Amino acid sequence: MKGFITTGLLILSGLTGFAQQDSARTLKHVTITGYRTVNGVGHMMDVKEGIIYAGKKNEVIITDSLDANKAINNTRQILGRIPGLNIVETESSGFTANGIATRGLNPTQSIEMNTRQNGYNISSDIYGYNEAYYLPPMEAVNRIEMVRGAASLQFGSQFGGLVNYVIKNAPTDKPAEFNTSFTVGSYGLFNSFNSFGGTYKKWSYYGFLQYRNMQGYRANSDQWQFSGFGKVQYAASDKVKVGVEYSLLRNQVHMPGGLTDSMFQANPKTSTRARNWLKSPWNIVTAYLDYSPSERTTISLKSSYLFSNRSLVWRNEDGGPEALDVIDPATNAFVPREVSTEDMHNTTTEFRISHRYALGNNESVLAGGLRYSYAWFNRKGGGEGTTGSDFDLHINGDWGYNLDFTTTNIAPFVENIFKVADNFTVTPGFRFEYLHSTAKGYKVDGLDKMVADQSRNRYFPLFGLGLEYKPTHNTSLYGNISQAYRPIDYSQLEPFGVTSKIDPNLKDASGFNADLGYRGTVKNFLNFDISGFYLAYNNRIGVVLKTDNQGNQYSYRTNIANSVHKGIESYIEFNLLKYLNPASKNGISIFNSLAFIDAKYTSGEFNGKRVEASAKIINRLGIIYSSPRFSGTFQFNRTGDAYGDASNVVSSSDPIAGYIPAYTVLDVSATYKICNYAIKAGINNLADKAYFTRRTDEYPGPGIIPAIGRSFYIGVAVKL
User: Fold this and answer.
1) 3-state secondary structure string, 695-720?
2) CA dist 613 → 25, 73, 162, 643 (Å)
3) Which backbone phi and psi does 151 adopt, to 5 degrees?
4) What is the pLDDT, as a whole number, of residue 587?
């Protein structure tokens, strides 16, 4: 959807039909919900689908309004207008989905985010292993909803907040519709996306199939991906809807390895590995029920089951990127590779209910629910693989480790909007989290076999409060404070060496998020949201070196430090043509997404040091031209420098430690529409900047993982 909208994208629901009355026809009750926006970036309403957003820092991205390289899910273009969003750009080096984070948190595989699709979790495990290896193709996504840390009360405890990818729905006015698009581009890119959907009487359906193949920016970085989705919904009545969904991903990724600083400076396209592979089949099945017993009450029940796997075969990473993978003259063969595989299962059920009720002269809203989740996870690794070069998971002998983990989570939650006045609301909230986690299995270290047998129960009460004052109909002052925590994950429960120890009093990380801001729209030419934030992150878990009574050093996993993240997040978008002529069908819009972030350790060994991967400044500027047939976007992306680890060393023999320089990237994209056809084209990284966003100590490195250089794409889309 292109264009500049005065009051926002409108989604009409509750249109139940017509009733005959003499010769006239009377339309029954219509409910209108939507988002105020200028050009595809807006904010959630106070209450939507039984969930409270009043007083919370949030954004909505309408993907169809964007000129972006959706064929490769270019996160920088699609989500770049979210202020302060830190993006891991490693899509050509082994990661199947770009990670994101806010407010100076760790962006690797979005581990600090609550990642969802259509409202249900799509990461491998809510708490024990919540890395995101699957994302839907952006061509299938209608909108992206993001809520900052205050999302902890409604969705879960993650410090970074919620990101929810909402898949497109079936067209309601036709029994069948078919959309297809093909995109080709640099480095062997070929992407095919096909969707189909329709509505017939009380039934509706939507599905898509996507295939993508890339040779890759670097040698040995070829990959292919096949993803699909299907949804069937039955509207039993105006009050009851039931449906089922299935999402799948099949892929295979060649990993070219990491680089040292000198290798990167000499040639960022260098590959240090030719035999490293990843494969990650992903499956999610979901069933849901939406019930509205009255105009004031909504009830929803959503249950999902994820069953997936991630398998790796790679050269043993001892020695870092300098340890070249070459044929051993003594054996005339490569060294055997290491094999690891992870089986992931989790089932999550969420029940939600909301009710509008009169309190004094105003209407208040009560929303609450219960989440139950159970995850079981098997991790095998350290197996001696073959000396070959193709994807091959066969091992010789036994696994080096074989560990089983489980996590049980029960979480009731409740929030209430108290409408104190027509333009002022107070929203207190409470969530109670129960966690039970287990770890069993073994790990071999040299000649020693260490056995894990742990069980932990934890209880977390989380409180929050949100305030919102609306001085005008289209602007608001908002503030909130909400507690959050990050539980001990699976990697922190497993044994990690004979000479290593784990603190028996290891605590889960805890803290809170706070926001204070002003947002709104002015007619149809200005959209803004300016806020300050404060995030306290206590009891961060890490590894330190200690010395025993005999003078021997050993590794000790414990709570090492607290950190504080504070700063300013600002988004401003101004439409010059709409300002000069509100009735204009064309628009020239300028936007600026800017964040200043001060994230530092406040205790422990690294007191005063910057938090790893945290850039002080993230600034994205853009100019957009839009007309009924043509639109184009130029985007300037500037991300400040950061460090690979908490020591803030500039260089180190440790592949994860070192300086991450600031970088500037330019993107340009355009779309031209003729009837039911559209042509899309663009250039990413226009100036061919060599840069990187991440250092790793293992997968998919170790070492520096370069981002992609200049690339082109062109595609055609058809709607039938």
Assistant:
1) EECCCCCCEEEECCCCEEEEEEEEEC
2) 62, 22, 20, 5
3) -65, -10
4) 92
* Residues sharing a CB contact under 8 Å with residue 505, sequence separation 6 or more, in sequence order: none
693: its two tokens = 């966003």
Contacts of 484 (CB under 8 A, 6+ apart): 149, 152, 157, 158, 159, 462, 510, 511, 512, 513
**N-to-C CA span, the chain:** 17
- pTM exceeding the 0.85 threshold for the entire prediction: yes
Give 399's strand partners.
Answer: none
CA–CA gap between residue 383 and residue 299 (Å, rounded):
49
Which token pair is 205? 């359906």
C-alpha–C-alpha distance, residues 515 and 528, integer Å: 16
Please say whether the beta carbons of 289 and 107 come within 8 A: no
Whether the predicted pLDDT of 483 surpasses 90:
yes
Given a contact cutoff of 8 angstroms between Cβ atoms, the answer to whether 118 and 286 are in contact is: yes
Which residues, at least 6 apart from 250, have a Cβ–Cβ distance to it below 8 Å? 225, 226, 227, 281, 282
> How many angstroms separate the CA atoms of 365 and 418, rounded?
7
Considering only CA atoms, which of 141, 284, 118, 140 is closest in space to residue 209?
Answer: 140
Specify whether the CB–CB gap between 34 and 48 falls below 8 A: no
User: What's the CA gap between 633 and 626, in Å, rounded?
Assistant: 9
One-letter-per-residue 3-state SS of 416-479: EEEEEECCEEEEEEEEEEEEEEEEEEEEEECCEEEEEEEEEEEEEEEEEEEEEEEEECCEEEEE
Q: Is 186 exposed, middle or buried (0-12, 13-18, 19+ CB in 10 A)?
A: middle
Task: State both tokens at 344.
Answer: 């992931």
Q: What are phi and psi of 458, to 5 degrees?
A: -140, 155
**Token representation of residue 31:** 């409910």
Q: What distance in Å separates the CA atoms of residue 118 and residue 246, rounded to the nearest whole number?
A: 11
Which secondary structure element, helix H or strand E, spans residue 571, and what is its range?
Answer: strand 553-575
pLDDT bucket at 184, cuts 50 / 70 / 90: very high
Mean pLDDT of 395-401: 94
Summarised one tens digit per residue, pLDDT across range 90-143 is 876 766 667 899 999 989 889 899 999 999 999 888 888 888 889 999 999 999
3-state secondary structure at position 305 = strand
The more confidently predicted of residues 548 and 59 is 59
Neighbours of 392 (CB within 10 A): 15
Pick from 332, 221, 223: nearest CA to 271? 221
> Residue 175 has what DSSP assignment?
S
State the Cα–Cα distance between residues 600 and 78, nearest whole angstrom. Answer: 29
pLDDT score for 8: 38
Instruction: Return the sign of the alpha-carbon dihedral for residues 57, 62, 67, 71.
Output: positive
Tell me the torsion sign for CA atoms 82, 84, 90, 92.
positive
Q: What is the DSSP string of 211-266?
A: EEEE--SSTT--EEEEEEEEEEEEE-SSSEEEEEEEEEEEEEEEE---B-HHHHHH
Mean pLDDT of 594-610: 95
| Chain-centroid distance, C-alpha 361 | 41
Q: What is the DSSP letter of 396?
A: B
Across 562-570, average pLDDT: 97
